[in-house]
Design a protein that fits this description.
Elements lengths: L15 E2 L7 H19 L3 H28 L12 H8 L4 E6 L4 E4 L1 H7 L10 H4 L7 H13 L3 E8 L6 E13 L2 E10 L1 H22 L4 E5 L5 E4 L1 H7 L13 H4 L4 H6 L10 E9 L5 E12 L5 E10 L8 H16 L3 E5 L5 E4 L1 H7 L17 H15 L8 E4 L7 E8 L9 E7 L1 H46 L6 H26 L7 E4 L1 H16 L3 E6 L7 E4 H17 L5 E10 L3 H4 L10 E8 L29 H11 L3 E7 L3 E9 L28 E5 L3 H13 L3 E5 L2 H9 L5 E7 L7 H11 L4 E6 L4 H4 L9 E4 L4 H13 L1
Parallel strand pairs: 18-20, 24-25, 24-26, 26-27, 27-28
Antiparallel strand pairs: 1-3, 2-3, 2-6, 4-5, 5-6, 7-8, 7-11, 9-10, 10-11, 12-13, 12-16, 14-15, 15-16, 17-19, 20-21, 21-23, 22-23
Length: 840
């Protein structure tokens, strides 16, 4: 074979074209012999017969001549040397730069141009070979040639490049070979094209080597370099920077490293926010701290540039990193001062930025970039006012004007930031000398979002606690009044028959007093001072039993859906009170859906910090059982959603609610040790989430069963014995004294604990029982009980109070035994408690 660069001129290498069949000289001689023989034979015949055959012979020749003329006219026949219509294409193929050969299905060569003869070293048509045979002796070409041959047989277009050595000891050369199918008048063939691409390969290798040299220079440069995508993923890092940071370069291709992994503090936010306005390419300089793989930091200066596409979309960055921990072109003291300033400036949690006189941001630190996002871009031309709520922009302008005028020390300015989440910030502004860079003032900002949220929660908690204390105090005093009203009503009913005209009036008094007692119990529930009887509950079973009652309460227009969580943990709560919570929420949901809707109750377990994520309150981490009550009603406005748990607050019309339903829910849940959270949107409904702590039985402790139903009240309530009655409320003491004396008991009454002890010390040895109020002046009930135990350890005691039993039980010694009777109580309840305690 001959090298392509040294092949002879094309004029001396005519193409080989065997696609058209030429004429045959033997056939012409044979045809002439036949004609001569026929003419000689005719001369031997008789004259008449001979003339007839001569005429016939001439007629045949004339017919052939006429058909030949029509054939030439139609182009079916042609003279030798005349070009056919596709000779132009053949001429182009013959003079093509790339070698070209056409091979039929049998492997015979139909056509080969001059370039092919030169590339394959064929001197004439007798030496021409197919490409497969030309490179058959070279093992490096065997595999690509096999793929080409298979593709040719399958009628596919394929291209391969391979390197072969031109003869023994020759220089290696690269060839590009293509094959494509060809259909010639029903005959299938394949066109092979071959080109010498050795020079192209040499140029590619030279470029690759130059690129390798450039990469080697960049990798071992005395400065670091990296590139990031817009999302912060590091796509390239030179070896110098990788060595500084202790990073394995093999991990970069996996996207394992991001900008925040190598920049300390808020440096990632600062760099990510940099860039030009409207796609303008600009180089930004940052003095920040780098974070190594071991967690240590090193000062550095970043020269950062972002590339932009034609449509303004940000592309990859180019960032040069200068190690500032090593001495540079400035003195060591100046360099150290700059490093310390950069460290303080960028690592402080205080957001700092400089602004011009119009309030436009010139530059800022990482904390400012994190708080205000892209406002740190110096060339954006955007004022910091764009990040403020509309109502706070004018106060900011006034504060900026005051700072520029030098009016005293900077005063704090609390502002709300735009965007979701009700973010808050506190600003301090101070003026600086304009050194020609447009900086007129410094803005210091603190993110106070969490602080304001905690303040609001604390304020709301204090408010609820104050209201609860007020409600509890009112309920306690009101219980004394109601006890007297109900008690004296019972005394009057005992002396009037049902036929008496006054009997119904007395019953009305008692019924209304009992109704008022129900409202007082709700107040006590809100203030968390009601008496609870907790027991271990399975929430799923409790809600399942309530389903029929809830369906009747909701009516036909509202669809009730209950979604039970799997394997719910047990909780410990008062069954009746928990049922009241669900019923109150269902009734509120019904009132919020006058046109119908759906009420959904869901239950699920929450482990770890899941409860805190689903609540605006700080729910402690742990195991909780959540009950969700969601409706599709009218929703609650944002300006009143923080007031819905306050007692007597209601959005219903006058006369259609007491405003104690949700306050009762709040009190019961909180007294049980849980939390309640509400989310609502006008027109889209409301969702209440109740978090109850998971109950875990102590090791070796069996769960106590639910309290048995109280036994039937005894029909005979009379008795004998001496009762010491201690009550500071005159009306209640008077009623209780008359009630007990009317049932046969001897009653010694005292207005305080001190007076009760004096009666006991005076020799009243016959006292069998003490009935005492809990909250009294001078000496409360628990203190009285301790004094009684010193004098009479076996004395039986009944405590009466409008507060919960747990409210004072913690002030007693462990194991102290007593009976509790909540206020308000009726005559029958008082006498029954005394009789059972005296007998037990």
């Amino acid at each position: 074979m001959t090298d392509m660069t040294e092949r002879p001129a094309r004029a001396f290498e005519p193409p080989i074209d065997r696609s058209q069949r030429g004429g045959s000289t033997l056939f012409v001689l044979l045809l002439a012999a036949v004609l001569v023989g026929g003419a000689a034979a005719v001369t031997l015949l008789d004259g008449a017969i001979s003339a007839m055959w001569v005429l016939a012979f001439l007629a045949v020749l004339a017919a052939l001549g006429i058909f030949a003329l029509f054939g030439f006219a139609l182009g079916v026949l042609r003279f030798a040397g005349r070009a056919v219509p596709n000779d132009l294409g053949r001429a182009l193929a013959a003079e093509a730069e790339d070698g070209m050969v056409a091979v039929d299905a049998a492997g015979d060569i139909l056509f080969a141009n001059a370039a092919y003869l030169a590339l394959t070293g064929a001197g004439d048509g007798r030496q021409i070979r197919t490409i497969e045979r030309v490179f058959a002796a070279d093992p490096e070409a065997a595999e690509p040639l096999y793929r080409l041959a298979q593709s040719a047989r399958a009628g596919k277009r394929v291209q391969e490049e391979f390197r072969v050595r031109l003869g023994p000891g020759g220089e290696p050369a690269w060839y590009r070979v293509r094959v494509r199918p060809l259909d010639q008048g029903g005959r299938r063939a394949a066109v092979w094209t071959i080109a010498d691409v050795t020079r192209d390969r040499e140029r590619q290798e030279n470029v690759f080597q130059e690129l390798q040299h450039a990469i080697d220079f960049l990798d071992h440069a005395p400065a670091g370099f990296f590139s990031t995508e817009p999302d912060g993923t590091i796509t390239y890092m030179n070896a110098t920077l990788a060595e500084w940071l202790g990073i394995d370069l093999a991990q970069l291709g996996t996207g394992a490293h991001r900008l925040g992994d190598i920049l300390a503090g808020d440096g990632a936010a600062l760099v990510a926010a940099a860039g030009g306005e409207g796609g303008t390419v600009r180089t930004d300089a940052f003095d920040i701290e780098l974070r190594t793989r071991t967690g240590q930091t090193m000062p550095a200066r970043l020269l950062h540039k972002v590339a932009y596409a034609a449509d303004g979309t940000a592309g990859a960055s180019r960032t040069l990193v200068l190690d500032r921990s090593r001495a540079g072109d400035v003195s060591e003291s100046v360099r150290a001062a700059e490093v310390r300033f950069a460290r303080f400036f960028n690592n402080t949690p205080l957001a700092i930025a400089t602004v011009d006189r119009a309030g436009r941001v010139r530059r800022g630190n990482g904390s400012f970039a994190r708080l205000f996002g892209d406002l740190v871009r110096a060339a954006d031309g955007r004022s910091i006012r764009a990040a403020l709520n509309e109502r706070d922009r004018e106060p900011f302008d006034q504060a900026l004007a005051a700072a520029l005028a030098g009016q005293g020390d900077p005063r704090p300015l609390d502002v709300a930031l735009v965007g979701d989440g009700a973010r808050q910030a506190r600003f301090y502004l101070s003026a600086v000398d304009d050194e020609g860079d447009g900086e007129a003032a410094i803005v210091y900002a603190l993110d106070t979002t969490e602080q304001r949220a905690l303040e609001m929660q604390f304020t709301q908690s204090q408010k609820m606690q104050a209201v609860g204390q007020l409600a509890g105090g009112v309920a306690h005093d009101f219980n004394n009044v109601l006890t007297a009203i109900i008690g004296y009503s019972d005394l009057l009913l005992a002396s009037h028959r049902p036929t008496d005209p006054s009997f119904q009036d007395i019953m009305q008094i008692k019924q209304n007093a009992s109704r008022a007692a129900g409202l007082v119990r709700q107040l006590l529930a809100f203030s968390r001072r009601q008496t609870l009887r907790p027991q271990v509950l399975a929430i799923g079973e409790v809600i399942a039993e309530l389903r029929m009652l809830l369906a009747r309460l909701l009516g036909e227009k509202i669809k009730l859906e209950v979604v039970h969580g799997r394997d719910l943990w047990p909780v410990k709560a008062d069954l009746n009170q928990f049922e009241q919570v669900i019923v109150n929420l269902a009734v509120n949901a019904r009132d919020a859906m006058p046109g119908g809707g759906t009420l959904t109750i869901r239950t699920r377990n929450l482990a770890g910090g899941e409860a805190s994520e689903l609540s605006r309150q700080e729910v402690p981490a742990g195991d909780w059982v959540m009950v969700e009550v969601e409706d599709t009603g009218t929703g609650i406005a944002k300006d009143i959603i923080d007031k819905i748990f306050e007692p007597f607050f209601s959005t219903k019309e006058v006369g259609k609610g007491t405003g104690l339903g949700l306050s009762t829910v709040y009190g019961i849940v909180r007294q049980t040790g849980g939390y309640v959270h509400v989310e609502s949107e006008l027109g889209r409904g409301t969702e209440f989430r109740i978090f109850l702590p998971r109950h875990v039985a102590e090791a070796g402790q069996a769960e106590l069963p639910a309290e048995p139903a109280p036994a039937a009240a005894p029909t005979d309530l009379t008795g004998r014995g001496t009762v010491l009655l201690v009550e500071d409320e005159d009306a209640v003491r008077s009623f209780a004294t008359r009630a007990l004396e009317s049932r046969g008991y001897t009653v010694l009454s005292a207005a305080s604990g001190v007076e009760a002890l004096e009666l006991l010390d005076s020799g009243a040895e016959g006292i069998d029982l003490v009935v005492s109020d809990v909250v009294m002046p001078e000496m409360d009930g628990p203190t009285l009980l301790k004094e009684l135990r010193r004098r009479r350890p076996d004395l039986k005691v009944i405590f009466v109070s409008g507060y919960a039993e747990d409210a004072f039980k913690r002030n007693l010694d462990d194991g102290e035994r007593f009976v509790f009777l909540p206020k308000p109580f009726s005559l029958k309840q008082l006498v029954q408690a005394v009789k059972e305690t005296m007998g037990g």
